[in-house]
Design goal:
two-stranded antiparallel sheet; mainly alpha; about 65% helix; single chain; globular; about 500 residues; 2 strands
């Protein structure tokens, strides 16, 4: 690396001094953190709806296309994170490589995204626990879950990493067992007599509903894959980011893609897309439950309910971690109140953690008032936020590579180099825009436009733009010239001993 450019090498000995956080997350933690944010209800429940809507072939194609887009985004993120491993991740990259106001909006957008997701997980917990304990008040389970998530994040980053590792491992083992059981059923060793590929030719299969159905599943798949970018937020606490981040991203992508593609393939072969229960959100009718029941596994519904509970707690746990680190970083950069940038003796940003938990709790309470209208709008803002973050990653990487070369650096000096540049970030950007635009298709009916649904689908965009414009007008920021982009690694205060 060329020292005259001010690029600081990142090593194991001085990493704590650079960020103020404890670098205690190993490669196995990083991999499972990303898996924990991705493998959840989107696979265990929504995959059935995808097959029902577009047929087994349509679901496979949609998830494969989104998987390719995520691969490009994650390699882009890996290149930047290995070079500049900070907990601000995409917010810091957008600030450094594009424009400070863009980084401000992206950071607050991401924090809000996961803070509201915590609320969504608290609601999901009440539905899951009602399966076993229908007479217990739902708020009790939400309170217990929130306390568990808070404590796992409060103890230390290593405690969070270990808890997320085991949470995610349960889900991974479940999916692997499911795929093995499914293959044994397909070849006729378990359950009913093998039907081969007959369910791929039932009715309109393998593709049902045409382009619009495929687009709908394409968007749903995008939501299912959200969470892979959690690795970026964890980069600031990775023990060996130069090596562990690229390794984790490569392995995680292929695991996620294989898990989703193989699981959907197995479901499509065993259960006809015409099965009404595939589109249900009831865990008793989950495609995983249905397949296990067909295999003769007793208590399949209870087992899957327990796994889904683990998935929900894992997603909430990861979300609280990511949003807390993003809020802490915003405070350190002067984009949030300074008290949120304080660390405790274990290197945990407790004030940011408390603020995040409080917002998640308040958002959860809105689900009980006004028929949940406010809560629904909050969820829609949150859902759009994930795609905005992905666009931010693509734009930041495109600018980073150009700035790196413009300042006379050699690509060979990068700890990790993303493949297919610049086509990869451009393609990822384009697909994200298509998914965002596609949100409105369900709003157009024969009778006109469903304005309520239209606004709910897009409300996240004006919120993001408002943050961007207000900060830009106040600070009068401009897009950085490539030759002036700051490629030095930020330094923050150390954690108290």
């Amino acid at each position: 690396m060329q020292e005259q450019r001010g690029v600081k090498k990142v090593g194991n000995q001085d990493n704590t001094k650079q960020t103020g956080l404890r670098r205690e997350l190993k490669a196995r933690h990083l991999g499972m953190i990303s898996l924990g944010g991705t493998i959840g209800t989107g696979l265990f429940l929504a995959s059935g709806g995808a097959i029902s809507s577009a047929g087994p072939g349509g679901a496979l194609l949609a998830y494969a296309l989104i998987g390719c887009m995520v691969f490009f985004l994650m390699t882009s993120l890996a290149e930047m994170a290995a070079f500049m491993p900070v907990s601000g991740s995409f917010s810091t990259y957008a600030t450094r490589f594009v424009d400070e106001s863009f980084g401000f909006a992206l950071g607050w957008n991401y924090w809000f995204n996961w803070a509201i997701t915590i609320a969504a997980e608290l609601v999901a917990v009440t539905l899951i626990m009602d399966f076993w304990f229908p007479d217990v008040p739902s708020w009790i389970w939400s309170a217990v879950s929130l306390l568990i998530m808070f404590l796992l994040n409060y103890i230390s980053v290593k405690g969070f990493g270990e808890s997320e590792y085991w949470f995610s491992l349960i889900k991974v083992v479940t999916v692997i067992i499911f795929i093995i059981v499914g293959i044994l059923m397909i070849v006729g060793i378990l359950g009913e007599e093998s039907r081969g590929f007959s369910n791929f030719t039932v009715g309109e299969a393998p593709f049902k509903g045409g382009f619009l159905a495929l687009l709908g599943v394409f968007m749903a798949a995008g939501f299912s894959f959200q969470g892979t970018e959690l690795l970026g937020a964890a980069a600031g606490e990775a023990d060996d980011p130069k090596n562990s981040i690229p390794k984790a991203i490569r392995s995680v992508f292929w695991r996620i893609l294989l898990f989703y593609i193989l699981a959907i393939f197995v479901i499509g072969l065993i259960i006809p897309y015409t099965t009404d229960s595939l589109a249900s959100d009831d865990v008793r009718l989950s495609p995983f439950t249905l397949v296990f029941e067909k295999a003769g596994i007793a208590f399949a519904a209870s087992v899957m309910n327990a796994v889904i509970l683990t998935a929900v707690l894992s997603a909430g746990n990861s979300g609280m971690y990511a949003s807390t680190r993003m809020l802490w970083n915003l405070a350190k950069e002067g984009k949030a109140p300074a008290f949120l940038g304080k660390l405790n003796k274990n290197g945990v940003p407790v004030n940011a953690l408390l603020a995040t938990a409080a917002v998640g709790c308040v958002a959860f309470l809105t689900s009980f008032f006004g028929n949940g209208i406010v809560y629904t709008w909050l969820l829609n803002i949150s859902g759009m936020a994930g795609f905005i973050v992905w666009i931010g990653i693509a734009v930041s990487h495109y600018r980073f590579r150009k700035a790196y070369l413009a300042q006379g650096n050699d690509i060979k000096d990068l700890p990790y180099t993303a493949k297919f540049y610049p086509a990869a970030p451009i393609l990822a950007f384009t697909l994200c825009v298509i998914v965002i635009i596609g949100q409105s298709f369900s709003s157009f009916t024969d009778g006109g436009i469903d304005w309520g649904n239209f606004i709910a689908s897009y409300i996240g965009i004006p919120v993001f733009l408002l943050c961007w414009i207000i900060f830009k007008a106040k600070k009068k920021t401009k897009v950085h010239k490539l030759e002036e982009v700051d490629l030095t690694t930020p330094e923050h205060e150390t954690a108290p001993e």
